[in-house]
TrEMBL record:
It is found in: Endoplasmic reticulum membrane. It is a multi-pass membrane protein. Keywords: Endoplasmic reticulum, Membrane, Protein transport, Translocation, Transmembrane, Transmembrane helix, Transport. This is Translocation protein SEC62. It comes from the Eukaryota. It comes from Papilio xuthus. Pfam families: Sec62. GO terms for biological process: post-translational protein targeting to membrane, translocation. Its main location: endoplasmic reticulum. GO terms for cellular component: endoplasmic reticulum membrane.
């Protein structure tokens, strides 16, 4: 069975779907692999929880076409087809293997971002203050992160079809040559252990020199321990005698994680922490900040417990109808007052005549001689 790769053919075993492979790579393949690892650009990523380096197939082919194996006097390959066949043989000899690119989903990215946010939230107010001071830097970093997010992120998985193709597929390096200095260090360790074991056979002068060196090293270690104890004793005495106002450290960097010479410099460190010192002021300012925060929290909580929300809207709604009803009541009271005045006038008239009305003849009205209480006789 033969397969095609853009017009190129590579021999493949038809029965098992795997290419034929020899036992070990040749010296030329090792040399090509070393040259490719140094000249072809690679990227780092995680593959099955391991940090690996990978390259793309097209870049490897392009690089080999410009190498000495393609342009020298006795070229091994001259076309892209021959280069792909040669790289396929290297793949079969386990110098690298083919991997499958899988784009990372947004859910995975969100999960990672949530973990980072949770870690950031634990830091608290310190990071908030630092972020306020470095606002400009964070904006620039956010822009860079947005650009990185726009790029497609991928992860690698093992490809089921192990063959080399002149495409943009990823190929993970298995070949990892050991640097020359590893061999040198290993040889020195071996010869050093052998020399120590042969100490009784050394010359007398050399053995005497090693003896004095060992005594000097032991004395130096004892001196370091004594200095560490002495500096603590001096600090405690000064601290007790001055009631914790004066702090004096001899060789303050002696037990710090610094270099050999930096651990003996400066010779001493003195601090005054009594009333009026900078440390006292800073502690007072911190206490004030804490008290202010507590008072602010209490002011925010107490209105919720003691005060009740004023019924602003209902009062306004109820007051409006009352204002409208007042003119109506005044009008009704005025009308009732008029009625009362009229009724009082009528009552006054009734009280003077004791009658509602009186029948009068026309003659009586004209004559007017008869008194009002007497009737004229009928003719």
């Amino acid at each position: 069975m033969r397969r095609r790769n853009e017009g190129r053919e590579v021999n493949v075993n038809a029965e098992f779907g795997e290419a034929t492979e020899s036992e070990k790579p040749t010296s030329e393949e090792y040399a090509v692999a070393k040259w490719l690892k140094a000249n072809v650009p690679t990227k780092k990523t995680k593959f099955l929880n391991h940090h690996v380096e990978y390259f793309t197939g097209t870049r490897a082919v392009d690089a080999l076409l410009t190498s000495k194996w393609a342009t020298g006097k006795n070229p091994i390959f001259t076309t892209r087809l021959e280069v792909t066949d040669f790289l396929h043989q290297m793949l079969l000899h386990k110098l690298f293997h083919r991997a499958k690119k899988i784009p990372v989903s947004e859910q995975e990215l969100k999960g990672k971002s949530k973990k980072k946010e949770a870690e950031k939230s634990k830091s608290g107010d310190e990071k908030d203050q630092a972020s306020a001071c470095e606002g400009k830097d964070t904006k620039e970093k956010d822009k860079e992160k947005e650009k990185e997010k726009k790029k497609r992120k991928i992860r690698l998985e093992m490809h089921m079809e192990q063959m080399f193709l002149d495409t943009a597929d990823a190929y993970v390096w298995i070949y990892d040559p050991m640097p020359w200095y590893y061999w040198l260090c290993g040889a020195l360790v071996v010869f050093g252990t052998i020399g120590v074991c042969m100490f009784p056979l050394w010359p007398a002068t050399v053995r005497k020199g090693v003896y004095y060196l060992s005594i000097a090293a032991a004395a130096f270690l004892v001196m370091i321990i004594a200095l560490a104890v002495l500096r603590v004793v001096v600090f405690c005495l000064v601290w007790l005698l001055t009631l914790s106002r004066h702090h004096l450290w001899l060789l303050p960097n002696l037990t710090e994680d610094v270099g050999f010479f930096a651990s003996f410099w400066p010779l001493y460190k003195y601090e005054y922490r009594g009333p009026g010192s900078e440390s006292d002021k800073s502690s007072k300012s911190k206490k004030k900040r804490k008290k202010d925060k507590v008072s602010d929290d209490e002011e925010e909580k107490t209105p919720l417990l003691t005060e009740e929300p004023p019924p602003a809207a209902p009062v306004v709604e109820e007051s409006l109808p009352k204002e409208e009803e007042e003119p109506k009541e005044e009008i009704a009271e005025a009308a009732s007052a008029d009625k009362l005045s009229e009724s009082e006038s009528e009552n006054s008239q009734r009280s003077s005549t004791d009658r509602d009305f009186e029948m009068v003849e026309p003659g009586d009205i004209e004559g007017g001689d008869t008194p009002p209480g007497e009737h004229a006789p009928h003719s």
